[in-house]
Structures are given as structure tokens and as C-alpha cells.
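Table S2 (continued). Query chain:
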Amino acid sequence: YVRFHLISPLIQQSAENIVLFDTFVNILSHNLAEPAYEADVAQLEYKLVAGEHGLVVRVKGFNHKLPLLFQLIIDHLADFSFTPAVFEMITEQLKKTYFNILIKPETLAKDVRLLILEHSRWSMIDKYQTLMNGLSIESLSAFVKAFKSQLFVEGLVQGNFTS
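Corresponding output:
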């Protein structure tokens, strides 16, 4: 079991940064779907989670091939690229996701409660409006470059691993 949290102070600076981060993580997951398929068949699991303060990379499975899967994820993160078509597809999916959160009373109530309790939190309405106003490919590229330049990493490795 390997879990790394890539923390960046950049994410919580604005609603636009949060939306760009969500877009980045979704595109990264999309890019990994095909190359990581064989790992999935070999009973290795991975998950990318857009956390509040950064990207959580979780990998679990048999130890002899787990480093290869983790390296694949890190390589895709380091050499992040995307096409305009993928960018459009992911932003459309995010619009639907954000809208579905806004129309459910229980998730909207949770969002409002956390907005009141947490000092630097952006509401789902702010994120949805930012996305509806439009994102540019250039802003995503600039965000990803800035995100990778301001990272703090926390990690946990459990199981049959050597140092």
C-alpha cells in the first residue's frame, strides 16, 4: 500500500484554482486509463483523489510490480499534456458534476455548513460560476506548471517493501 499526498498552497487561493485543479486531476486520470489498464488486470489498484489541499495518489497491490505502476503515475504527472478535445470533454463533465451537487439539498447543505466553518473555503456556487464563465487551456497549463513548482510531499508506504 503506497499513499502520497502532493500538497500545494496554490489550490485554495481562488475558486478558479480549485476548478483548474479538479480539471487537472480529471485529465490526469483520463490520460492514465489506457496505460494503467494492464495494472488493473494484474490486480493492482490506483486512485487519484483531488483533496482540499492537494493530490492524493493511492496505489495498492502486489509489491513486486507496484513501483512500476507508481512510476507510471508520476511520469504522467511530470509530463502532463492534454489535447483541446480532452480539455473540453473534462470541463463539460465537471459542469455536470458541479450542477448535480448544487441540485441535491443534502450535498448543498454540507457545502454551506463547511463554508461557514472553514476559513478559506470556496463554495460550490463559486466553483460552478467560475467553470461556467469559462476556463482557458493556457490557464490550465500555467496552473499545472505553478502547481508542480510549489509541492510538498507526504508519503506512507506499508507492506513488503525495502527502503
